[in-house]
Give the backbone structure.
Amino acid sequence: AQKITQTQPGMFVQEKEAVTLDCTYDTSDPSYGLFWYKQPSSGEMIFLIYQGSYDQQNATEGRYSLNFQKARKSANLVISASQLGDSAMYFCAMTFHSGNTPLVFGKGTRLSVIA
Amino acid sequence: ETGVTQTPRHLVMGMTNKKSLKCEQHLGHNAMYWYKQSAKKPLELMFVYNFKEQTENNSVPSRFSPECPNSSHLFLHLHTLQPEDSALYLCASSQTGLAGGSSTYEQYFGPGTRLTVT
């Protein structure tokens, strides 16, 4: 069965520092997509970054980058130059085969940015 | 309106009430989803609709009844709910395609409806 594991229930980071949020996944399917979402206290899930299983390079979106290590089945999110507004829950998720298969989510990591 | 909208944002209902949650997407997507997010649990998929057809029902109790009249609208009809059904209900939409490549096909989420069953 497909599974997403986020081992860090909570993380603290100093403002302007970089932080890495861990995510490992388990699948035997060669074709999959990996996502990171941010959920602030308002509840909305905000898409951050995507990595396809066949992508050769790590995905980057502004201050977000995804450290994709396929052999280790890990897809860690790196946030550079943390800001107070980055404080939120962060979820790693994956989907399989086609874009209309539902996302499988991890339990999330609560990131707190300290001034 | 842009993106994915959900109404109402908050709902309190008794166990004998009947209510409906509404989701609307303005992104031209052809797949829509209902997720349930309970405290301290991962998001759980409830239903998937692709081109208005239900393609997945993730063992959801019959007191939750989805309806998808067109690709832009999705409803979740609620009746005789239990207190343990209190949660954040999130709607999402996406474009169908193939995962694994350079296209993202990410799911865009609405702000959610926070439901409390008393």
